[in-house]
Backbone:
């Protein structure tokens, strides 16, 4: 298997602020860290104001650090797995859907800035569209975003958002599938699109969000 011993598990350190600021605007990031987001912004994340806010910040930062570490290890060894992360609803200026910082977007930016990868693909197979990742890289040809998700699920709404924070955003490739789609149809769609996109874009690094919530019993 992939894991041979406990030595194959590696814990991340707390990340520097500059990583988060490579993706998120400073006003939002500082307010999140300091616990000064207004009630509306906090509710949008899915969390409420709480006395243990520091623990939420710590957990969120460690998720980011874990994804960056995983990307580095994948480039060294060919594959690596992070058991956390996938916080794809966090946008440049706000959080949503129980995600406050976009770990995938931050990891992509860090890999580029460290010179480890230039062209990066984010393949998001969570049941929910990766709207935050799509927004962050909307005008960036160096990062290709693919989201294969349930069309009738959060974030609700059409591709064109009725408000800046409502509805789905537009990935480089969105594959919206109906609720109740079976395994054969799901895999057929993925096999039809993914190899073509990889061949055309030729990424140096592929970041994959498995999204266990695609399981029918979730």
Residues:
């Amino acid at each position: 298997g992939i894991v041979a011993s406990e030595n194959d598990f590696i814990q991340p350190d707390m990340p520097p602020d500059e990583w988060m600021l490579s993706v998120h605007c400073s006003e939002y990031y500082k307010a999140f860290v300091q616990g000064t987001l207004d009630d509306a912004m906090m509710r949008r994340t899915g969390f409420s104001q709480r006395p243990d806010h520091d623990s939420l910040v710590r957990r969120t930062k460690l998720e980011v650090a874990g994804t960056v570490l995983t990307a580095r290890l994948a480039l060294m060894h060919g594959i690596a797995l992070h058991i956390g992360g996938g916080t794809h609803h966090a946008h440049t200026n706000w959080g949503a859907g129980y995600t406050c910082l976009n770990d995938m977007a931050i990891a992509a930016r860090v890999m580029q800035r460290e010179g480890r990868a230039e062209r990066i693909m984010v393949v998001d197979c969570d049941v929910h569209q990766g709207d935050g990742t799509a927004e962050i890289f909307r005008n960036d040809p160096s990062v290709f975003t693919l989201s294969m998700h349930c069309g009738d699920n959060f974030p609700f709404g059409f591709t064109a958002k009725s408000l800046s924070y409502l509805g789905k955003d537009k990935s480089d490739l969105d594959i919206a599938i109906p609720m109740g789609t079976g395994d054969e149809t799901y895999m057929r769609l993925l096999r039809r699109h993914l190899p073509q996109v990889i061949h055309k874009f030729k990424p140096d690094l592929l970041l994959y969000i498995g999204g266990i919530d695609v399981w029918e019993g979730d």
